[in-house]
Design brief:
Number of strands: 9
Structural class: alpha+beta
Largest sheet: 7 strands, mixed
Radius of gyration: 24 Å
Distance between the termini: 68 Å
Oligomer: single chain
Order of helices and strands: HHHHEEHHHHHEEEEEEEHHHHHHHHHHH
Length: about 575
């Protein structure tokens, strides 16, 4: 029951729903990237993921990584699979040609990494930060650093890490204590400890490039005093740097990925970007990583759904209640796939997968537009979309990955709880996605408190109006989405008004606001899917499941946020009416 990518599903969304090939050809770097090339890349990627990566998922979980004397050995087959990944040119898919990359659109890279995570999350953690490290160094590195490290990172010949977290400083990066002292030759002497570093030590590549958040002497306290240093495992002259792995964590899942506690002991590094601007440089990496974590969530949910759908189509139990659709034959009445309770689980998860994919692929397409469009206004619109939608995708897709995979485990009954069928591994592996690259609660606060409220909802309104303008109000389903988009716009105004009297309120309702936003985005995606082409019986059933079992949650979230705002509004009105007010 290894994961199998389905290129035809992806091509339908990219071509029929998002018109991605035509939009990409309008960008100068992709003028020659036609439909045939898109199809070829997707077919080859699906073949590689299905044959070289997916079969190692179980062994990676069962045997895990081994730590001894400061060195890490990855599970059997991982080194060979990663070598094939590099030899196939997959890490360099969207890197610039001048850096040794293929210069293909970011949206194709997004699909590749979704499939990789679905097939083998543990192995995919190794190259998972390459795209972010490449972007960070390309935008902020000195010419000398770029010449020395960028081609190696772009090709995947060397892997990279993101060293932020310290034992006392998780999400509060302002408490980082790792120190960096300038040397006379322009390098830095870096000392400190980092924890939860994915791939901090391994045997997949001969060198590991650590991007380390640190504090220079006399830097102010808090996040404004942080800088970013590039600290390689091996120095340019061939000497081993003073970078040490102290242990690997024993984790709930992701046993195929070494999560390391790292110690930098007067290690040699170099400044990336400006002193005191480390977070600005790092967030180039983190924003890219957050979209890819959202794609991990989609991929893991797809992997869980594939297992559950296949099992439900073979497992026979008591006869299902009611008539069985003629298209599936009366003889299948005792398959658990025909039982309404389990059909609801399966179709609900499929609705999330297809809808979330459309939003995530549109976001990856916006990354290409933001980078390459000749029109400054188009670039601005694309950047605005990514700023608003990325935290929504990261939080909502990873939450659904864990809870949806747990629902898929339910389809197996007791068989799902034992290791034989592999679904329990997906549940365990998915859980961490809700935590890393910024917890889901932080994503919700980022959306509402930092992105929506400061400009009184102007940026959010612009995004929602753009979506409204893509819809045809003459179609009932699309008119319904337009109504929900308007409700979400008004909800932002309601929260903004209430926040004037109670600044804590937005933090309390941020999760509900984000969830409501995702549900509206899904409604838009499904409206576009249904309008793109006549749906076959299976997709029509899933579309109906979305309207029945997923979309009604929007009203609930809307009511929860509005109910929270009401006491504030009533109190504020009472104060205004009082003689003293």
């Amino acid at each position: 029951m290894d994961y199998r990518p389905r290129p035809e599903d992806v091509r339908f969304l990219l071509e029929a729903v998002l018109d991605a090939p035509a939009r990409l050809r309008a960008l100068a770097p992709f003028a020659e990237v036609d439909d045939a090339l898109h199809a070829q890349v997707l077919e080859q990627a699906a073949r590689f993921v299905g044959s070289a990566v997916a079969p190692l998922n179980r062994v990676g979980d069962a045997q895990g990584c081994r730590f001894a004397s400061g060195e890490v050995r990855t599970p059997p087959g991982f080194r060979e699979a990663y070598r094939a990944f590099v030899d196939g040119g997959w890490p360099a898919l969207s890197a610039a040609p001048e850096d040794g990359g293929q210069g293909l659109p970011a949206v194709l890279e997004a699909v590749l990494y979704e499939w990789l995570a679905a097939a083998n999350h543990g192995l995919t953690m190794a190259p998972g930060l390459l795209h972010g490290a490449y972007a960070c160094l390309r935008h902020h590195g000195s010419e000398e650093l770029k010449a020395r490290y960028l081609p190696k990172i772009a090709s995947g010949e060397w892997l990279a890490t993101m060293c932020l977290t310290e034992a006392h400083a998780g999400s509060d990066l302002g408490q980082v204590r790792t120190r960096a002292e300038p040397r006379s030759d322009g390098s830095l002497r870096v000392s400190g400890g980092k924890i939860f570093i994915s791939g901090g030590e391994h045997d997949l590549t001969p060198n590991i490039v650590h991007l380390v958040l640190c504090r220079l002497p006399d830097a102010p306290a808090g996040p404004r005093g942080l800088s970013l240093a590039l600290v390689p495992k091996w120095l340019p002259g061939g000497e081993r740097n003073a970078v040490h792995c102290e242990r690997i964590e024993e984790k709930m899942g992701l046993h195929g990925s070494p999560t390391c506690a790292m110690r930098f002991e007067d290690a040699t590094g170099w400044l990336v970007g400006e002193a005191g601007r480390g977070l600005a440089a790092m967030f180039v990496m983190m924003n890219s990583a957050r979209l890819h974590v959202a794609l991990q969530g989609i991929g893991l949910l797809d992997a869980a759904w594939q297992k559950a759908e296949a099992y439900a189509g073979e497992r026979r139990q008591m006869r299902a209640p009611g008539p069985v659709p003629a298209s599936r034959g009366g003889e299948s009445a005792d398959l658990i796939a025909e039982h309404p309770a389990l059909r609801r689980i399966l179709d609900t998860q499929r609705a999330w997968i297809d809808g979330a994919r459309a939003i995530a692929y549109r976001s990856a397409l916006m990354l290409d537009i933001a980078e390459h469009d000749a029109d400054p206004k188009a670039r601005e619109r694309a950047q605005r979309w990514c700023a608003i939608v990325t935290p929504v995708l990261k939080a909502a897709c990873t939450q659904q990955a864990f809870h949806g995979a747990s629902d898929c485990l339910q389809v197996f009954g007791g068989h799902g709880y034992v290791r034989e069928w592999g679904i329990e591994q997906t549940v365990r592996d998915a859980r961490v996605t809700m935590i890393y690259e910024g917890t889901n609660e932080i994503q919700a606060i980022d959306l509402l408190v930092r992105k929506v409220l400061p400009d009184h909802g102007a940026a959010m309104s612009a995004v929602l109006l753009e979506l409204r303008d893509t819809l045809d109000a003459s179609r009932e389903a699309e008119a319904d989405v337009q109504r929900r988009l308007a409700q979400l716009r008004y909800l932002g105004t309601t929260v903004a008004m209430a926040a004037q009297a109670d600044p804590v309120l937005p933090h309390e309702v941020a999760d509900d606001y984000l969830r409501a936003t995702m549900l509206v985005l899904l409604a838009w995606a499904w409206a576009r899917i249904e309008a793109a082409a006549p749906l076959d019986a299976g997709r029509a059933r899933v579309a109906a499941a979305f309207r029945r079992w997923v979309l009604p949650e929007f009203e609930m979230r809307l009511a929860m946020v509005k109910r929270s705002c009401e006491p504030v509004a009533l109190t504020h009105a009472a104060v205004a009416r009082s003689p003293s007010g």
